[in-house]
Every structure is written in structure tokens, then in C-alpha cells.
Amino acid sequence: MKPSEASKPFIFHNPNCGTSRNTLAIMKASGEQPDIVEYLKTPPTRDYLVELLAKMEISPQELLRSKEPISEELALHNPDVSDDQIIDAMMAHPILINRPIVVTDKGAALCRPSERVFELLENPVSSFTKEDGEVIHNSQPFSHN
Predict the structure, then answer these.
(1) Is residue 3 domain-resident?
(2) Which of 41, 46, 97, 129 could serve as a FRET partner for 3 with CA atoms 20 to 30 Å apart?
């Protein structure tokens, strides 16, 4: 799956993940109505995942959700495992793709922690209360591009 090229923000989301839910809530509180892609149901294509990695300027290893048992089973933590092998594993097992990934006109990022989304939003809220009650503050300077 590759979301449309329109300028509408989107999030690769897992509704069972608190960080993903908080990131989506920050986006909505900031006035965004992102396209929501539940990547476990509709994973990105291999080409688009490679494109996202380049946009985020991170390696496949950095995007790997290493806490998943399948990561251990496939020995993906081994330094001899290539980027292509990690990407192949992510294609076969989308749960290995860490989330949430947010893409806006300002860029793309793995939003862990969820406050990373502030830098991608046009008009981010100044503060937000997460599900667990933690209040986070937007440290990004206010600007209109």
C-alpha cells in the first residue's frame, strides 16, 4: 500500500499501540485529518517502504520492531543480516515494522516517542495529554511555512 501523493498527511497506524494512538490524537488535536493506514491490514509495498526509510533517513534496523518474537526467531538482530533481509522480513511479517510512521509535507518520521510528530505538523498544539496522563509540550518553534 502506498497512500496517495496528495498533500494530505497520513499515518501508518496500529490501533493496539498506545504510542500510535497518542500520535494520531496529537495530529487530530492539531487540526489534521490524516489518512489512517492500518499497516498490519494494509502494509506498504516493498518499494514504498524503501522510499519511507530514505525519507526518514533511518536504516531498516532502526525501523525494525525487535521486541517481536518473530524478530528473535529470524535472528534479525544479528549484525550479519543485511538491510534487504530485514526489509524482506518486514514484508513477510508487517508486525516487524515499527510504528507509527507519519508523513506530511514537512517530512516523514517514526514517531517514537509520539511527540516527534510535532515537528511534522503545520500548526501543532502547544501541549497534549497522553492516554496515561503524561503532559507533553511542543518544543518546536512556532512557524507558518
Answers:
(1) no
(2) 129
The Cα 109–Cα 63 span in angstroms is: 10
Task: Look at residue 15 and tell me if it is in a domain.
Answer: yes
Amino acid at 115: E
Catalytic residues: 17
Q: What is the pLDDT along the chain (145 residues), one digit of tens a residue?
A: 555 555 789 999 999 999 999 999 999 999 999 999 999 999 999 999 999 999 999 999 999 999 999 999 999 999 999 999 999 999 999 999 999 999 999 999 999 999 999 999 999 999 999 999 999 999 865 544 3
Q: Give the 3-state secondary structure of 25-69.
A: HHHHHCCCCCEEEECCCCCCCHHHHHHHHHHHCCCHHHHECCCCH
Residue 2, domain member (yes or no): no
Is residue 145 located within the same domain as residue 107? yes
How many angstroms separate the CA atoms of 60 and 29, rounded? 30
Q: The CATH number of the domain where 87 resides is what?
A: 3.40.30.10
- What residues make up the domain containing 110? 8-38+99-145
